[in-house]
From TrEMBL:
<dbReference type="InterPro" id="IPR050237">
    <property type="entry name" value="ATP-dep_AMP-bd_enzyme"/>
</dbReference>
<dbReference type="InterPro" id="IPR042099">
    <property type="entry name" value="ANL_N_sf"/>
</dbReference>
<dbReference type="InterPro" id="IPR045851">
    <property type="entry name" value="AMP-bd_C_sf"/>
</dbReference>
<dbReference type="Pfam" id="PF00501">
    <property type="entry name" value="AMP-binding"/>
</dbReference>
<dbReference type="InterPro" id="IPR000873">
    <property type="entry name" value="AMP-dep_synth/lig_dom"/>
</dbReference>
<feature type="domain" description="AMP-dependent synthetase/ligase">
    <location>
        <begin position="8"/>
        <end position="366"/>
    </location>
</feature>
<protein>
    <submittedName>
        <fullName>Class I adenylate-forming enzyme family protein</fullName>
    </submittedName>
</protein>
<dbReference type="InterPro" id="IPR020845">
    <property type="entry name" value="AMP-binding_CS"/>
</dbReference>
Amino acid sequence: MIKLADIRKHAARRPGHVAVVDGEVRLTWANLADKVARVATAIEERLPDIRPARAVFVAENRWELVVAMAAVSSLGIPCVGLDYSAGPEATAGALEQLRPTVIISTSAQRAVLTEVGWPEGRDVLDIRLDSDPPRNAPGVAFTDLLLSEPGEPRPVEQPFEAFSFTSGTSGIPKLVIRRSSFEARRFADLVDQYSFDEDDVHLVTVPLYHASGPGWARIFLSLGGTVVLGPYDDTAALIRLIQDEGVSTTLMVPPVLKRVVAHPASEHLHKTSRLHFVLSGGRHLNRWVVNNTWDRLGPVLHLYYGTTETGVNVMIGPEELHVAPCRSGRPMPGNTIAVLDPENRPVPKGMRGRVAIASYQLMDAYATAEPEFLDLDHGGRIQRFLLTGDSGFIDEAGRLELTGRNDGVSKATGGKPLDVNVFGLENDLMDLPCVRETAVLRTKLPDTGEEVLIVPFAPVSPERLESGGRAVTAACTRRVPCLPAYVVPVEAIPYSPTGKVRAARLLETVLPLVRAEAATRRSGLVPA
């Protein structure tokens, strides 16, 4: 998050300009500077002596969290958020990797910390953003921190580190570690390419525990603009904020963007809003969403691809996205994309394989695992690449298209291709008029080890369930004939607040039905 020194520069230049909007709360740059100085001073006085100092938050988006993040950042303490919807096992695993010395939480999300036994007797500064700690319990209320006199907080003496967590949608999130900052270079590249400035108003629609939330908010705060905290789960409220606050830029994950452009109130936003840059990334940005976004919001949609480990790597703009909706884009400055075969050799354009990325934004390490780095001769020079868990191909125009999430592409066996275009199949299914949403999961059946596609889908209405099932099955057979598909109707696809499919939760729901159908197929009662 932005540091106190930069906040004070903006406060001196335009003290009355609004920096942060959270519902009825509007913090000017002068307000923000005062509050961050008070909180940073108070934290410095109370900070445990343990080094390295690290901060974590388990809290929903609110202005107090922005102040707290800016305060610990001003002290040189790395700060990272936890997905409060991920459950106790993921939370405990993440905390064990990070070992924080500062914990920031709200009463709504406190239960998961209590359930996993944090901080409970540890030498930790426990900050409660919206409540007082219980009587005789350790911890401090955020309101008490604000009572401190604003001072000149000094950064702690420790090596630079930056942290982020992978999504953990199918297991324990991994802690990603960087030991040098790339922020200045990425900031300059994005501002230069997209002409962002101090008059921009950025709407935050993702939880700040996701790296993209504070990452993009920091750009506009660094410019002296305005950041609006919006409720990702209230579509009507997001649309009102876009209009009422003069929002000019925003990042929306595909499920949120889909809801916005399907809402009746968004019909005239292309004429009534200031939007000039809308960013999205991830799965299910199908042709319908792309076209409807153009109709409702105008030519403003940009799609990006990046990972927690590699940063923001490719981007595609509205005009090109309109004619090539499945593409993720072209490499941004300072990034190289390679697609590799099972022996880690580059493959020709148009051939699918494992995606590898070279970038100035690459991670240095995981806390508990070894990343897969390799040095490749690419473009006449040796570059360091990180092997991702994604597969895809590069088209003749140099654009990347992702085709699936594999955690490593296996060799072709039994006549099966190197990689199945799972995302392409998902896009085909999302274009069916009987399908509201779906996810294609490539996995192995636990009983037999057979590799299959499991395809949960939500029909547009109960009346379309049977016909929808037939249509989805036919599309799977046509697009991926090499793998048996198990099509299962569900009420909805579970997403995380950051737009990721909750794969583990989804599999747990549908696997009993799949196993029963697989047994029936093996018995020969129905054709496979």
